[in-house]
Structures are given as C-alpha cells and as structure tokens.
UniProtKB/TrEMBL annotation:
Organism the protein comes from: Paractinoplanes lichenicola
Name of the molecule in the record: Nuclear transport factor 2 family protein
Domain SnoaL-like: 13-123
Entries under Pfam families matching the protein: SnoaL_2 (PF12680)
Length: 142
C-alpha cells in the first residue's frame, strides 16, 4: 500500500492476506479501535448472532484463534464487489482450511462484508454455513 490512505479494497485484501499467511500483524494497524466483527449465523438456528467481537482487542483475539486453530487458511476463488461509495467491500470465497492438531479438512462458503472509514476497517460481517462449522467443532445443532 502506498503512503496514502488505503482503499476499502486494499484493506480487504490485506485482511485476507493476514488470515491466509497467518500473520495477524499485517492487519492490526488497519483496524479501527471501535471495530466490530459479527458472525450472524449460528448453530442454533436462532436470529441472534453466533458471535460478536467488539473493539480492536476482541477482533484481533478472534483472528488469532483462526490462525492458531487452523494450520492452513485458504480462501479460493475470491470475488470482490465494492459499493458505489467505495467504503464497503464484499468478498465471496470458498474456504479451504485445515484444523491444527487433527488435520481435519474444513471447507465452507464465505461472504464477508467489510465496512471502512478513513482508511480503517470499522465493521466486518462474516457469513458462512454454521452447520459445517458446528460439525467440525462438535457443537450441537439447533
């Protein structure tokens, strides 16, 4: 990225690079202090979000769990869409992850919505099939 303020697309690309290279330090400075990450779909089927991470520390802790719990994080077939105002990026991709310790494959379909303001990420929505994750993690369904 240049010295100028990064675009929303550059921020999204850096976010996913941090996950795939398992180097969360790449995204740290681009997360707003009040960033929120929401995982809306839950294994219960209820409308309440599965998880909500509020503030930079919580979001970074969540991202660290991904790179700790998965020895491979790959988002294949990335398809980016940007809103007309240039502040929001959507990414659709196929997740191809490997669980650390068990080497179990974890494949899911993702849609991320990343909202930016003043060169920082302020909100992330992470949509994926919660049943696929629940089966991997041994969580109850319903």
């Amino acid at each position: 990225m240049s010295n100028d303020r990064p675009t929303a697309t550059q921020l999204a690309e850096t976010f996913f690079e941090a996950l795939e290279t398992r180097d969360i330090s790449l995204i740290d400075r681009y997360l707003a202090d009040d960033v929120v990450e929401v995982i809306p779909y839950s294994n219960t089927g209820k409308p309440e979000p599965f998880y909500v991470f509020t503030g930079k520390a919580e979001v970074l802790d969540y991202l660290r769990t991904i790179v700790t719990n998965f020895s491979r994080v790959l988002l294949a077939g990335k398809r980016y869409s940007v809103t007309d105002d240039g502040n929001t990026v959507f990414l659709q991709a196929e997740g191809d992850l490997v669980q650390a310790g068990t080497d179990a494959a974890y494949r899911n379909v993702y849609v991320f919505k990343i909202e930016t303001r003043d060169g920082q990420i302020v909100h992330i929505d992470e949509y994926a099939n919660p049943i696929t994750y629940a089966l991997l993690a041994g969580l109850p369904l319903g």
